[in-house]
Design the sequence.
């Protein structure tokens, strides 16, 4: 390593000395630049600060690379650049001999897109490090928020800080407070199962959720579309939504039962939930309209509806409808099955 460093240092010193010799022997700035171009490595470019300092950068460097070469803080808050006194964006390509100036703003911060702009190792490493720290802080804060949301479902007066401290003592002794919050914030630990573990509930404990008192947005899984009255499993997403699945849904295995809890939804505000149904009906004029008429007469909203012919005698109606409970959906299916033009109707 010392040998490599020594050689690099010798090369750099030689290059700088050569630059100084060229500069002292040329009369005009243009002659100096022309001579310098011939002396440069083809994999490098040189640019100048407004004060005339020479900066050597990798070929393909952008304004953003220049900013990080000057100083990390200047790079982290790089807003725009000026190339030869002309205002440009941070992804503007630099060329040999450009005079470059950086404009910063305090509110500007590195983001994932910057990794696609920068090409120099220094800039890329600084951007990655900033994003890593930033994401860590965001996930810790998100973990705190999710714990607060989870506690609201369990209807407990325990303070979030107390539950974190006690969880660490009882179940996660190797974690710090921030590490536990980080794991919850990223979704590595399910906040509801963590709280349930702390409160000492059994794995099959069911939480009653009265919708008039619930502050979380409820999201039905698109594959199984659970509705109040069914056996439902739930988790709080990283975005703070309550995602619900049927117990029989194939995706519950992928998520892991240990990351889900049983809930009982009390729909006391007549919230509408989507569910799918199918009806085999006689392929005769007017039967399609009769089915939609029965659904409408029940006060049930049709979200999506389609009819496909199966044979000369029968057709299939596939529908997504909006209901308030499993009981309401089953009552519709019973009514349809009592019609002489319906061969079979069922929830799917």
Sequence:
């Amino acid at each position: 390593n010392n040998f490599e460093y020594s050689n690099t240092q010798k090369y750099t010193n030689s290059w700088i000395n050569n630059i100084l010799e060229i500069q002292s022997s040329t009369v005009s700035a243009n002659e100096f630049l022309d001579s310098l171009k011939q002396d440069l490595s083809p994999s490098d470019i040189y640019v100048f600060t407004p004060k005339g300092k020479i900066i050597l950068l990798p070929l393909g460097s952008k304004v953003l690379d220049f900013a990080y070469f000057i100083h990390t803080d200047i790079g982290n808050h790089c807003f725009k650049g000026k190339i030869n006194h002309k205002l440009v964006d941070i992804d503007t390509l630099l060329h040999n001999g450009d005079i470059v100036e950086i404009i910063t703003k305090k509110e500007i911060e590195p983001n994932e897109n910057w990794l696609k702009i920068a090409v120099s190792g220094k800039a890329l490493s600084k951007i990655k490090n900033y994003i890593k720290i930033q994401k860590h802080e965001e996930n810790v804060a998100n973990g705190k928020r999710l714990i607060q949301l989870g506690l609201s479902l369990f209807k407990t007066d325990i303070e979030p800080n107390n539950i974190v401290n006690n969880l660490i003592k009882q179940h996660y002794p190797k974690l710090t407070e921030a590490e536990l919050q980080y794991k919850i914030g990223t979704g590595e630990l399910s906040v509801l199962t963590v709280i349930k573990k702390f409160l000492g509930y059994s794995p099959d404990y069911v939480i009653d959720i009265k919708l008039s008192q619930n502050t979380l947005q409820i999201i039905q899984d698109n594959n199984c579309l659970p509705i109040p009255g069914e056996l439902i499993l739930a988790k709080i997403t990283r975005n703070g939504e309550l995602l619900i699945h049927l117990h029989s849904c194939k995706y519950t295995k992928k998520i892991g039962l240990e990351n889900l809890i049983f809930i009982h939804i009390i729909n006391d505000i007549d919230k509408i939930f989507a569910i799918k149904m199918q009806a085999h009906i006689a392929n005769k004029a007017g039967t399609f309209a009769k089915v939609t008429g029965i659904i409408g007469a029940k006060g049930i909203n049709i979200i999506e509806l389609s009819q496909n012919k199966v044979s000369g005698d029968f057709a299939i109606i596939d529908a997504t409808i909006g209901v308030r409970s499993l009981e309401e959906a089953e009552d519709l299916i019973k009514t349809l099955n009592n019609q002489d033009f319906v061969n079979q109707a069922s929830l799917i």
